[in-house]
Design brief:
The chain is mostly beta strands. The chain has one domain: PCu(A)C copper chaperone (Immunoglobulin-like, Sandwich). The protein is about 10% helix and about 50% strand. The chain is built from one helix and ten strands; from the N terminus they run αββββββββββ. Strands 1, 2, 3, 4, 5, 6, 7, 8, 9 and 10 form a ten-stranded mixed beta sheet that branches. The chain is globular, with a radius of gyration of 18 Å. The two termini are about 35 Å apart.
Length: about 150
């Protein structure tokens, strides 16, 4: 009986920890790109908990993934590598065209409309989130994202 009660408590705690995850990903998408070239990734990271920061992203379909920011100065678009992107408490970090974005450097295979690009987001807090970027010409449908 003690074993059964202990197991029930363990499952309840695990379920609560899962439900309490303050970070989530939505609208994850990527444009089509050819193997050997670079791709791009967009998504929104929402945070219902304490302030955090995205400090790295990995994908098995890219040699490496970098976070970049874009800005327009004097009519010239420039891009800068970012080592961390803040995700404020109760706020979000938006990765979209013309702003923050993920550079999928050295794609290991061609990605075409309808494909999925798996990614793991790593945060300063130690949290890790899995995401799937739907390859298309705009934001993914809600069913194509993982929380």
């Amino acid at each position: 009986m003690k074993l059964l009660a202990s197991l029930a408590l363990t499952l309840a705690v695990a379920g609560t920890a899962q439900a309490a995850q303050p970070l989530s990903v939505s609208g994850a998408w990527s444009r089509p790109a050819v193997a050997g070239t670079n791709g791009v990734g967009y998504l929104v990271v929402a945070n219902t908990g304490k302030a955090d920061a995205l400090v790295g992203v990995e994908s098995p379909l890219a040699a490496k993934v970098e976070m970049h920011s874009s800005s327009m100065t004097g009519g010239v678009m420039s891009m800068k590598k970012e080592d961390r992107v803040p995700v404020p408490a109760g706020g979000k970090a938006v990765f979209g065209p013309g702003g923050y974005h993920l550079m999928l450097i050295g794609l290991t295979k061609t990605v075409k409309v309808g494909d999925q690009v798996p990614a793991t987001l790593n945060f300063a807090s130690g949290a890790k989130l899995k995401a799937s970027l739907a390859v298309g010409m705009g934001p993914a449908k809600p069913a194509a994202t993982h929380h």
